[in-house]
# Entry
Amino acid sequence: MTAAHPPRILYLVKQVELAVRGRLDTVLRPHGITVTQYTALTVLEQHPGMSAAQLARHTFVSAQAMDGIVRALGDAGLIERTRDPGNRRRMTISLTPGGTALLADCRDDVDRIEAEAFGGLSGADRDTLSEWLQDARRALEDAPRTVD
# Structure
């Protein structure tokens, strides 16, 4: 018996996310960090000097959860918080050399997971998929949230 409809794209994206998260958890555990902590570090690698609120939005966690993540990463010496010279009430967060080194240590394992997941795609197809996923994320961020 075949399904009346193919699986929804949202379902497939969620299945990929769960599979990737499980694999990431396995390779990151020996480094002493969680998937969410790793995500925060990679966001900071791309966007140093973020506030905790900005980092929470980019990492897809609540501000309250980010407080614990920032505390743990700071205690581990992976990030540093400094006062923003342009706004003395704002603290910015950046990687320490230890945080940069940890990401470098994780890179081969993470690259291997990405290659296993998307190795069947050409470079052009990977670029296209990346663009589509970024477009989808932006569209959802820009759309008003409604509940009917």
Summary: The mean pLDDT is 92. DSSP finds six helices and two strands in the chain.
